[in-house]
Amino acid sequence: MWSLAIEEQFYILFPAILAFTPIKAWRHVLAILATISLVACVYIAAKDTSTAFYLLPTRAWELLIGALGALLATNPTAIRCARALLLPAFAALAILPFVRTGHAHPGADAAIVCLATVSILVGRSALFERLAPKTGLVFLGNISYSLYLVHWPIIVFMNNLYIEAVPASVRVFTVALTITLAYLMYRTVEEPFRGSKTSTRKLAVSLASVGILIAGVQTAVVLHDNSESGFAYMRRINYGLHGSCYAQFAKPVCKTSNNPNTVVWGDSFAMHIVEGLRKSEGLDLTQATRSACAPFIGTSPYIPTYANGDETSRQCIQFNKDVLSYIEKDKNITKVILAANYVGYTNGKLNMLSERGEEFVVEPTSREKFTRDFDLILKALKEHHKEISVVFPPPPVDNGLLNCMEKKISGRFFIGGQENCTFSMTYHANSSKVLNAVLTDLQKKYDFKIVYLQDAICSGNICNTIIDNAPVYRDPVHLSYLGSAKIFEKLNL
Q1: 470 burial level (CB within 10 Å; 0-12, 13-18, 19+)
Q2: How far apart are CA 130 and CA 132, in angstroms?
């Protein structure tokens, strides 16, 4: 287990640190190391929670706080301070499970838990000793390791079983079941193991056999999951023709022939339709796509949280200039298919970086701005006599529906959610109303085709996440490779 690995690493390094540190400096050195580790944890967790969660340098501070508590347990000043914090510490431990700090974990929440716990342990008073429910705490302490081993598989199983949130009654049952199984493991495994008179050789052979068996099962599972029939493969990132086509279009792998007559131009919403256009429609195409870069002239999404936000936006603007120039110069190109997450450019929730002469300005999205920007691209293409199609974004889904879709296709039992993993078209219809109105108005002016993906995904107001036992979606907003092919097969353009 990853946590045991962290603990073992700590147990190897910690004694070495103490051995080379003067005893009088132990507290100060451990406090400094704990602070450095905590700061690193908070900083890294904001960028990559997995790295912060699983590595020793970003988790050592929790163990170091415990070590500091042990060193301060006999210090009168520390005991007085800890006793003054007893009530706040108990309050924090009682309230924190029900309150979100708003920070990534591990971080502020874990720091509060560790500090509160060490305050209680260092500052426990005679009153605390009398009031503490000793029997219950001793019982939990005795079975704590078994509890630690059994709790996570049960929680994962319950969360996997339910499509939606696990009901409160089931969560209570899960806690009771976990404690029961932990107690049984404690009595039937831990206690007999500690008092066992079995020879070391027999014990080693038994444990090795179990280890080999578990490793074999895990290997079989991994090999199965990595096969092309595995669901992870079905829901792999849909780059279109090739993974390198997310920011370039001149490469041979981003074309279906040497002289294609169609260009698919847009962001990741253009990438995910390429498979359908290629396989089901048989189009000879060039994929001109760049992630988070809708096909506009002189303007680009501005996302300051991205690394080098300004530069990324300017690269998008230049990319679109290059694509337009390619379309205008290549006489073989007769058709252009535009696709992007257009809904986001009509609601004022995004900002755009736009060229103003030699300067760039940041401005909010709006219906009016989208109309002007899209008018420019349509006009430029029509001036070069290109046939234009605009692909409307698909209805979005939530993670619960994706979970349902996966379980339904895999034939696994699940509880809750729609039996057929369907959803209502209402949200998509309402959220895309402005986009639909703008495109319909521009269609009268430029005579282009609007392709509605929902025509293949939905029937009336009911939309599907599964078509012919294939997953339509790879994530809440993007189509899978199989889904893309199935949709365009049904559209039959």
Answers
A1: middle
A2: 6
Between CA 272 and CA 434, with CA 291 as vertex, the angle to 5 degrees is 75
Q: Mean pLDDT in runs of 10 for the chain (493 residues)?
A: 78 90 93 95 86 89 94 90 90 85 80 92 70 69 86 82 80 92 87 69 56 50 47 85 85 93 97 93 92 95 74 93 96 96 90 90 94 97 97 94 85 70 95 97 96 96 94 96 95 78
Angstrom distances, CA of residue 337 to CA of 224, 378, 428: 38, 11, 22
CATH 3.40.50.1110: does it fit domain 240-491? Answer: yes
Distance (Å, whole) CA 55 – CA 458: 45
| Separation between Cα atoms, residue 328 and residue 330, nearest integer Å | 6
CATH 3.40.50.1110 domain range(s) in the chain: 240-491
DSSP 94-138: HHGGGS--SS-SSSHHHHHHHHHHHHHHHH--HHHHHHS-HHHHH
Asked whether the CA dihedral 53, 57, 61, 67 is positive or negative, the reply is positive
Q: What is the pTM of this model?
A: 0.68
**How large is the C-alpha radius of gyration of the chain?**
30
